[in-house]
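Let us practice reading a record.
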Amino acid sequence: NLAEQMAAVKSTSRAIVDLIEQGHRVVVTHGNGPHVGMIDTAFEAAAMTEAHTPHLPMSVCVALSQGYIGYDLQNTLREELLDRGMQVPVATLITQVIVDENDPAFKDPSKPIGSHFSQAEAEVMMRNGYVMKEDAGRGWRYVVPSPKPKHICDISLAQTLMAMRTVVIVGGGGGV
């Protein structure tokens, strides 16, 4: 939930700024599985309303989650840096990766996203085309392919920002 996420982000930001104070240059990377699932579920529900909001492709859900998580991290990092009297720029990049279209992950989706469901709920979802897998005894989750990245698009931009002593935030990249 939002309160837990904000507490985690603030704690993480303190630890990251500790590293910056020690002279390290930092790139912050993050996962986004629960957030991508939440966004996908929200847009799927909105698509079934009278408004007929379009259901978004997974790549767009990934980009939205990167922006959402990056926004929270960027704000809490900037706040922690300023509280310590440090003028260090922070930037969030929406990243994409190049993947192999023949990566075996496409045949056997395994990355859980979103909420946990009971087996009965998962069975209904599977009848509707979702790939669901049991998640370590905690329930069932929707799974998507997680192919290995072959190349990070715009990596040179992240490197340029790093050279300028900017804290760079990048998240789980959508495949291209």
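A brief commentary: The longest strand covers residues 111-117.
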